[in-house]
Amino acid sequence: MPSYTLNVNSQSHTVTVSSAEMPLLWVLRDVLNLTGTKYGCGIEVCGACTVMVNGQPEKSCDMNVSSAVGKSIVTIEGLSKDRSHPAQQAWIVNQVPQCGYCQSGMLMSVACAMKAGHHGSSIASEVKNLCVCGTYPRIKTAIAAL
Amino acid sequence: MNTSITVDRRKFLGISATGLTIGFAIIGMAPLDDAHAADSTTVNSWLTIGSDNSITLTVGPSEMGQGSRSGVAQIMAEDLMVDFSRIAVVQGAPSLSSTAIGTAIVAGGSSIIRNNYWKFRNAAAVARETLVQAAMSRLQDNNRSSFSVKDGVISHSSGKTLSYGDVAADAARLTPPASAPLVPDAELKVIGKSLPRQDIPPKVDGSAKYGLDARLPGMVFAVIKHCPTFGGTLAATPGVPAGALALVPVNVGAALGRGADLAGNVNAVAVVAGTTWDAMQAARQLTVKWTLPANAAQWSTAQFTAQAQALAANATPYVAGGANPPERSTRLKASAMPRTVSTSPLPAPSWSMPAICCPMWRMPAWRS
Fold it and tell me: Which of B38, B182, B218, B299 could lock B230 by a disulfide, CB 3.0 to 4.6 Å apart?
């Protein structure tokens, strides 16, 4: 059973898992109990599993844990201590979430786009996450102010 | 329209020396006529005012994004005369006993608020008046008109004030009134306003818990491998696959309306492992032998697709147990969802929700 040391939300964790190919998503959720990152499809289509790896958006459902070693991983839990990230604030002000299941991944995609220098409506072209409830109109309104 | 509603006193509980708890009964899903006709007698919801001035509402219906958790707090804030943000709404847990605690732990049919609006209002008004009664006792003034309530504070004409928390323990020893005056429509301050929803902040920081997020000490994880058709059963129980901890034959809920799956038939296996992924991997590699029903071809994807296309073109939906409805609009005809005639002894569902709305892993957990 291989072990890997991961840097998640600025904390170091050493995990022992069954295989190098175990996706980062399940290490985060089932081993580290960081359940904010969600499973939606397992085939990198929906984006619910999106986390930030070295500043870039990654779909953790299909990223081997072995390739996450040595990188800075940020999950929704690490986006801010107190919902103070501008995207989180915009999400609350505009009452964006409905069921909320997609929103962790959605916010991480938005945060990555902002980190890469996108502003306002240009963020939308970077964010391809799916929302089954259809909160897209409120997402667009919230993004416009970022 | 009612301005005050009589409720059986036996439904109310005054328990706990640390605060006042008002118990009441709400109805889950039911057509509106039934909701008015039959009142549930099983207490399944609780409003608690603590000596620490906390206010907690425990209800069964789950919040799925439809806003009812926040909505019921908003309704109660009116007659309780407190700021809406002071009411913490807690998801009630299912009863662990063999007796169901009523149909309240359910969310569907857009029913929780419209079926129970007056119940929520009355419970809040009764709680308020019980607290005022305790204040009247404390200040030794039996004249209700000497007292007024605002923002969870009871004021006496002498200038003395008492918070709800100050009198909650005393109120717990009183018998609550059967009914209490509700805030008149013309004076509503909270109901009718668009307020920020309480469930939204946890949804932006990953702390909102969904079904898939439940965690218990030492827990393991399982995935289900289903029979590929309705009506099939497990022919032979496979051995525990490599990487898994256990393999458990299970019955996964009957296919309502088809009559093909009978309650109790083993039609799936649960593969249990230390993580979800290990369970998925083990299940993927597993070969399971099923006994398929003689008419298996009828339940195939190809058959369903052909049937759906024929029904949509035909534009006459089946109605379980009844005659076809009168002509519908052209728009409905073009998009008619195919329905099936129920031939099974199981009751047909009284409502339907597209499967895409509630994938099991997205269902909110019992406790937030």
Answer: B299
